[in-house]
TrEMBL record, chain A:
Pfam families: Hydant_A_C, Hydant_A_N, Hydantoinase_A. This is N-methylhydantoinase A. Its EC number is 3.5.2.14. Keywords: Hydrolase. GO terms for biological process: glutathione metabolic process. GO terms for cellular component: cytosol. Residues 4-182 form the Hydantoinase/oxoprolinase N-terminal domain. Residues 203-489 form the Hydantoinase A/oxoprolinase domain. Residues 502-675 form the Acetophenone carboxylase-like C-terminal domain. It comes from Allorhizobium borbori. It comes from the Bacteria.
UniProtKB/TrEMBL annotation, chain B:
This is N-methylhydantoinase B. GO terms for molecular function: 5-oxoprolinase (ATP-hydrolyzing) activity; N-methylhydantoinase (ATP-hydrolyzing) activity. It is an enzyme of class 3 (hydrolase). It comes from the Bacteria. GO terms for cellular component: cytosol. It holds the Pfam family Hydantoinase_B. It comes from Allorhizobium borbori. Residues 15-521 form the Hydantoinase B/oxoprolinase domain.
Length: 683, 549
């Protein structure tokens, strides 16, 4: 018996998913998180899980972990005291950024917290010019003095970012040596290693965020590996990065900035696996929790990877899955603004006091209250009866808004759901329509506690015809950890015109990246047969400043490969912007190499299809307000755990399970597939 | 309560929910148009500095929604479509027509580099709306500013495309008047693509909800913005509030006095501006630019969340005598109108500080420092590079102002140094905050910026700004912020009225003004003063002199 374990550590719960390779058995386990030291909760969860399935830590063949440690430290300002060494004359660049103010009209708005105080930022004499030549060599003595000053100030991490380090890294390498000599105990973050790409501010921001989070992540990883080893775990644990791949703990501790989207990216990977299972490859993922929803698009089973994004106000250049987050969740509060319009979120009641129906002191209606009023969610209790709620409190809260709007309570509750649906649809448009994809060609994968409740409404709003609700929507991220390959990204930036550069020059750039990748494969002990390299190149028309990633065909780099790159670029440009600039030269900017170590993934086993009759899973009936029915209608209640492969459920119906509720309006039918996913379609 | 009793029905087709949903579709459409414009464009001013805006208008020429880019650009939009409707005529429009225009006196522009492209949207054969965008083309460099004829090519709204066909003669005429025609053409292509998106999205919306519903929702959203604006104005005590300030600029010999009288009565506001006669310099403000400035300033005070559509203007009335600097007439030059517009915002905030002091800030830097460089490349082609530099943001009643940001009427990005130096013969020597430039107070005003360039080739420079003489004022006992300056090091006479030649190796230093402080310096927390000293934001000597610490 070989068990694989996925552990997803969130703010409230730590989800553990155990999978047995031979039988395909899946066991899910939830324990309370321990936010002060998440490694305790995780170790507890793993220990409990192992005991529950009756195996030993030594027999665990894989452990993958998704974490919010980096994200939370960034949001809550709990990184370390950090110093910065940068080119003289530019120490304020970190503050100035792109010189834009944070909000166009709000005079009270502020920029995100500064991660390095001004007196800890040192401008050092050195200068490289735009063509890579050195105008002023680095003043090593001044740098050494600055390092000593930072040490005396008690910083725990030092970031280094010199101008043009992406093409001339020597000065940063000297800085690295001096840091090793003078201040080895600090965490060092060097821009040419963290983000060797042009645009100095974004590279600086990334390097600083990395430094700021470095010691936090290093401490966390150390504590967790120690505890897991004490438990008797033999395998090296892996951690997910924002790019959807996993990486060894040590590498993660070196580049924590690459893990800021660790949590949501795991959900996307899980949805990808669900897609493979169901044979549906064009998917839009919809992960709805208490305060926010994450959405992403998978075309042909692949999620676009972006090389830069703004996370909690900080620009970050790191490979990240193209995930869009919107402040709309079950706890989002509905209110009426001064113009008498109904609005929902982004303010959230959170888990405490939570929705009005919890009776813990919040009297403003939330999205959950709207569902309770309409009885789409159980009006008496949540979590399979573990939590009592009071519908009359929801009604009272919604009624206050209804009176102001001059609308009925039910109509208002339904309106709250319509508005929150519109907010989520807007997020999906960003990742689909705005990128040239029509959502109607995609299936919606709904997960997170609240996803399956709102999925059909959302799909209808976007004209999507099919919805997939995975077997365990509430803990899908933990499952995703069992589906993830090892992955890391290498890049180099050099401007070349496609019609002027020799293929050999590009080949030699990739050869350099491949050397780095080989070293990484060795470090991670990835078997030669499991090694995969993928090349892409960021292109634009010479003169533009935003690039489009284009795949480079396999094999040697030739003029034929260039032709295919140009073709791919033009196709993508047309899809994104609706035109191509005939005759304009194409420029190559950044060369990227993705190194993957293929992990043997949990293979889910298909079950035997049984009959269509789902009546054995019926648990009762309830009046549920459905817009399609124009009012309350009697819906059949089902217990998800009792549904069998092949069963068919027709709406109006409510399918309950411990970690979520699926709402099926009249006119919709859910079919249980061989993997116990629900496939929902219009009748 | 029984469920039957809860189910009070209202059969209105256009409930507030539908309106909200359609409003959110408008907002995502204009955002998407803006992204497409930036990403597909070529000139640094658009692709990196994002000096462009997008909007949707209804068939009558009222704005449905503007993207949150540059408040100043509203001025270029609000006059454009009414002009087309009046002078070209709705009956002559056909699908695929695209109008181009920029003129301040014929077509509602605010200065010539902001070139507008507008495309009518037809659905089921009927004109239902407009997609419109403007981009600041960094061209028309090194021109005179005695009157508008010197400032660049004047283009009244004319068709650049007729039923989808490019009017090549019009394009040729335009490009021949530009110094960097290749960039202009590529940027126009990006502007076209942005409007095409707007057209497609709005038609999709009409297919889904019906044209009537979409247009009715548009009207309701305007009413909604109006209601919010009125509710906000009503919360300001009735009364008359006056404020005046002195305006200076690199091209003026003396300071000019601007003043405003604001009368708040119930839920309406009237603003009357007094300024000297228009000047023979590129500083004059046309009425639509004044309007967009007032709408911005009032919105920040009244309710920053009001939707950016035509409804918000309804309770606001603006007067200024024609032919004065703040409401100029043909042929006044207008290129640098934004400096005066920034001061109009200050005037409004200064006047309203008397009655709602917590909703305004001390004076922001009151300027937009502009630097424009141009020259000839080795191959004989011309290059033009323009940038604007932020400064101090005024202190708030409860916290310090922001350091080194763009304020009020603009919000463009800087150009990354690694992009600037690659594309132009310029090297940046320093880019930093100006120590001591934030006005002292219980809360400190924001700091100005210093940007220092070295010319790597001979080139022509022109610079512009304000607050070289009169400092950004403080509020509630707060002190004034630092002044701005332009200097060619070692050659102070090189620039005359802000323009001149610089040569390879010359160093140009631009310092932008800081901002005013809020509250008495004596009330500043000693720890905050200590932090400012430690961080070098103020000197120990100043700390002693001003704060007694």
């Amino acid at each position: 018996m070989a068990w694989r374990i996925g552990v997803d550590s969130g703010g409230t719960f730590t989800d553990v998913c155990l999978f047995e390779d031979e039988t395909g058995e899946v066991v899910i386990w939830k324990v309370s998180s321990t936010p002060d030291d998440p490694s305790r909760g995780i170790t507890q969860g793993v220990a409990d899980g192992i005991e529950r399935v009756g195996t030993s830590a030594g027999a665990v063949s894989y452990l993958g972990h998704g974490t919010t440690v980096a994200t939370n430290a960034l949001i809550q300002g709990r990184g370390v005291k950090t110093g910065l060494l940068t080119t003289g004359g530019f120490r304020d660049l970190l503050e100035i950024g792109r010189q834009k103010r944070p909000d166009l009209y709000d005079l009270q708005a502020d920029k995100p917290e500064l991660l390095v105080e001004r007196h800890l930022r040192f401008g050092i004499e050195e200068r490289v010019l735009a063509d890579g030549t050195v105008e002023k060599t680095l003043d090593e003595a001044a740098l050494r003095e600055a390092v000593r000053a930072l040490k005396a100030e008690g910083v725990k991490a030092v970031a280094v970012n010199f101008l043009y380090s992406f093409m001339h890294a020597d000065h940063e390498k000297v800085a690295a040596r001096i840091l090793e000599e003078e201040f080895p105990e600090a965490f060092h973050s060097l821009s040419h290693r963290i983000a060797p790409e042009f645009r100095e501010f974004e590279r600086l921001s990334t390097t600083v965020v990395n430094a700021y989070l470095g010691p936090v992540m290093r401490g966390y990883v150390k504590a967790l590996s120690g505890k897991l080893a004490d438990l008797g775990l033999q395998v090296a644990p892996q951690l997910t990065q924002s790019n959807g791949g996993v990486i060894g703990f040590d590498a993660a501790a070196d580049m924590p900035v690459r893990t800021v989207l660790s949590g949501p990216s795991t959900g996307v990977v899980a949805a990808q696996a669900v897609g493979r299972m169901t044979g549906i490859n064009n998917l839009i993922t919809f992960d709805m929790g208490g305060t926010s929803s994450d959405v992403a698009l998978l075309a042909d089973g692949q999620c676009r990877v972006v090389s830069e994004s703004v996370v909690h106000g900080y620009p970050i250049k790191a490979p990240m899955l193209d995930i869009h987050t919107v402040g709309a969740g079950g706890g989002s509060i509905a209110y009426i603004d001064s113009g008498n319009h109904l609005k929902v979120g982004p303010r959230s009641a959170g888990a405490n006091p939570g929705p009005a129906c919890y009776g813990l002191g919040n009297d403003e209606p939330t999205v959950t209250d709207a569902n309770v009023v309409l009885q789409t969610q159980n009006p008496e209790y949540l979590l399979n009866g573990r939590m009592k709620i009071d519908r009359s409190l929801s009604v009272k809260a919604v009624e206050k808004l209804a009176d102001k709007l001059g609308m009925g309570v039910l109509e208002t509750a339904n309106g709250i759901l319509d508005i929150v649906t519109a907010n989520m649809a807007k997020a999906i448009r960003v990742i689909s329509v705005q990128r040239g994809h029509d959502p109607r060609d995609y299936a919606l994968v709904a997960f997170g506690g609240a996803g399956p409740v709102h999925a059909v409404r959302l799909a209808r709003e976007l004209g999507m015809k099919r919805i997939i609700v995975p077997k365990t929507p509430g803990v899908l991220c933990a499952l995703g950890l069992l589906m993830t390959d090892l992955r890391t990204d290498f890049s180099a930036t050099v401007l070349h015109r496609l019609d002027q550069v020799a293929p050999e020059a590009i080949a030699s750039l990739y050869a350099g990246l491949e050397t780095q990748a080989e070293a990484w494969f060795e470090r991670e002990k990835i078997a030669p047969t499991a090694r995969v390299l993928t090349r892409t190149v960021d292109c634009r028309y010479a003169g533009q400043n935003y690039e489009i990633a284009v795949a480079l065909p396999e094999g040697p780099i030739t003029t034929e490969a260039f032709r295919l790159v140009k073709e791919g670029f033009e196709q993508a440009h047309r899809q994104l912007y609706g035109f191509i600039a005939e005759g304009e030269p194409v420029q190559l900017v950044t060369y990227r190499l993705v190194a993957s170590g293929l992990v043997e993934k949990a293979a889910f086993k298909a079950r035997e299809i049984e009959g269509e009759d789902s009546s054995a899973a019926i648990s009762g009936r309830r009046d549920v307000w459905m817009a399609e029915a124009g009012g309350f209608t009697s819906a059949t209640l089902y217990n998800r755990d009792l549904l069998k492969p092949g069963n068919i459920v027709a709406g109006p119906a409510i399918i309950d399970q411990m970690d979520s509720t699926t709402v099926l309006p009249p006119g919709y039918v859910a079919k249980v597939d061989a993997y116990l996913n629900l496939i929902v379609e219009e009748k | 309560m029984t469920n039957a009793a809860l189910a009070q029905s209202s059969a209105a087709a256009l409930n507030p929910i539908t309106v909200e949903v359609i409003g959110s579709a408008f907002a995502s459409t204009v955002e998407e148009m803006g992204e497409a414009l930036v990403r597909a464009s070529y000139s640094t001013n658009i692709k990196e500095r994002r000096d462009c805006s997008t909007a949707l208008f209804d068939a009558t020429g009222a704005m449905l929604c503007q993207a949150e880019h540059i408040p100043m650009h509203l001025g270029s939009f609000i006059g454009f479509i009414p002009y087309v409707l009046e002078h070209v005529g709705a009956e002559t429009l056909a699908p695929g027509d695209v109008f181009i225009g920029n003129d301040a006196y014929e077509g509602g522009g605010t200065h010539l580099p902001d070139i507008v492209l507008a495309e009518p949207i037809f659905h089921d054969g009927k004109l239902i709306a407009w997609a419109i965008n403007t981009a600041h083309h960094s061209d028309f460099a090194d021109r005179g500013h005695a009157h508008i004829y010197q400032e660049g090519l004047r283009i009244p709204p004319v068709r650049l495309y007729r039923k989808g066909i490019l009017q090549e003669d019009i394009q040729k005429l335009f490009l021949l008047n530009c110094q960097v025609p290749h960039e202009r053409m590529s940027d126009l292509r990006a502007q076209m693509a942005a409007n095409r998106l707007g057209v497609t999205r709005l038609k999709e919306l009409c297919d889904k909800y019906s044209t009537e519903t979409v247009l009715a929702a548009g009207r309701e959203l305007m009413d909604y913005a109006e209601r919010k604006m009125r509710a906000g104005i009503a919360s300001i005590p009735d009364g008359t509030y006056r404020f005046s300030d002195l305006f200076d600029a690199e091209s003026l010999r003396e300071q000019l006095e601007f003043s405003v009288t604001i009368t708040v009565k119930g839920d309406e506001m009237h603003l009357d501006f007094v300024s000297p006669p228009q000047v023979r310099a590129g500083l004059n403000v046309v009425y639509t630019a004044l309007l967009s400035t007032v709408y911005y300033a009032v919105k920040t005070v009244v309710d920053p969340t009001v939707l950016p559509n035509a409804g918000l203007a309804r309770p606001i009335h603006v007067t200024a005598q024609k032919g004065t600097l703040l409401n100029c007439a043909h042929p006044a030059a207008v290129d640098g109108r934004i400096a005066a517009c920034q001061r109009v915002v200050d005037l409004i905030h200064g006047a309203l500080a008397q009655v709602v002091p917590h909703r305004v800030t001390a004076a922001c830097n009151g300027s937009v420092a502009v630097a424009s460089f141009s020259g000839t490349r080795a191959d004989g082609s011309l290059w033009v590079y323009l940038e604007t530099i932020g400064g101090g943001f005024g202190a708030r009643y409860n916290k310090d102002g922001l350091d080194g940001v763009h304020v009020h009427m603009t919000n463009t990005s800087n150009l990354p140094l690694e992009s600037l130096e690659t594309e132009y013969p310029l090297t940046l020597v320093a880019y930093e905050l100006v120590d001591g430039s934030g006005g002292a107070g219980e809360f400190r005003g924001g700091m100005g910026l210093r940007r220092v360039y070295r010319a790597e080739a001979d080139c022509r420079v022109s610079v512009g700004g304000s607050r070289f003489i009169s400092r950004p004022w403080g509020l509630g006992g707060g002190l004034e912020g630092g002044l701005g300056s332009f200097t060619v090091l070692g050659a102070p006479d090189r620039l005359v009225n802000g323009a001149g030649d610089i040569f390879k190796g010359d160093i140009l230093e631009i310092v932008t003004p800081g901002a005013g402080g809020y509250g008495k310096p004596a009330d500043r927390a000693p720890a905050a003063v200590a932090t400012d000293i430690r961080d070098g934001r103020i000197s120990s000597a100043d700390a002693k002199a001003i704060y007694g610490l």
